[in-house]
Amino acid sequence: MTVKYTPYYLLLFILAFGHSKAQDIHFSQLTETPMYLSPANTGFFNGYFRATANYRNQWSAMNNAYQTYGVSVDGGLFRSKKSNAFLGLGLTIFRDQAGAGKLTTTSALLNASGIIKISRKSVLSMGMAFGSIGTNADYSKITYESQFNGNTFDPATVSGEIPYRQFTTLDLGFGAAYEITNAKYDQDRNDQRSIKFGLGAYHINRPTQEFGAGSKYKLPVRMCYSILTSLDIVDTRFTLTPMFVFQTQGENQNMVIGSDIKYRMVTGTKVTGKKKQNSLGVGFFYRRNDAIVARLIADIGDFSVGLSNDFNVSGFRTSTNVSGGGFEVSLRYNMLASSLFESKREFR
Questions:
Q1: Residue 137: is it exposed, middle or buried by C-beta count within 10 angstroms (0-12/13-18/19+)?
Q2: Model confidence at 38, in pLDDT bands (50, 70, 90)?
Q3: Which segments of the chain does DSSP mark as H helices, in order?
Q4: How large is the average pLDDT for residues 250-268?
Q5: Which residues contact 241 (CB under 8 A, 6 or more apart)?
Q6: Tell me, which fold does domain 7-335 have in CATH?
Q7: What's the rounded Cα separation, in Å, for the pair 303 and 300?
């Protein structure tokens, strides 16, 4: 049986798929995309400047059905020990390309947050994101039933299909985050424990997706609820980072739970900061009804490298050959507040 691959047929597939999977892009290394979880995470970290790059190749067994890229930078402004509040400013750019028609979505968002110390051990942040989302595709790469000449598909034959409509929309997001920290102080190194509760709401303006003239389909709001923790095991070289993320978008729900365990190979000097902390870690995460994610992460001073792979546990594993669910790499630079000399401007 021959199927007629029209732009509208493809659109129906995309919309139907969106009810069972997230319509937004997704990454497995969620701790490496903090502003994707909530705009309130902008500038809300232990350091002064942070830059992250992400790449995800999903379902390689299906001719690399999805390739996703991300770049983000953020930091704190007017951060000082003398002040109980400061501003966070950041930029995120995400690009996703899918299928033979290279359906491409590119988003660029400017993030801003206000971060205030509630007490010695707790901090509250409120943030917003504003920007645009552009969508386009190249349907010259797709062949249609009308181009079949009896033996092969002839791309030179006029298909008679209606061209895909490229469009750009405005996008708004909002978020809040609350962190509680505690520490056991030591002459060489402080053992830290922290837990951060986050809320993010994206596409709150419900931008219309104009795939065709007169389209009334609006992008559903994506809600993201997160709990991120970091637990130094006292008097050892180990750190646990359990996390829980739950997202909803339209009728779709997505939940990820798991943890890294890191081993400190080198402990940084607390006073001078001349020797940086180095650690290696492994992590295992479960994305409900979809995949188990295995991750390796290396923290070398201000730099971090993460490698992960999805192993499908859903019925889709037959198509992805189990191991082809999604390979991902993350690179991060974080100008840390890692010593007394370096932390003269430190907020905490």
A1: buried
A2: very high
A3: 7-20, 34-37, 317-320
A4: 91
A5: 31, 228, 229, 230, 231, 259, 260, 261, 262, 281, 283
A6: Porin (2.40.160)
A7: 5
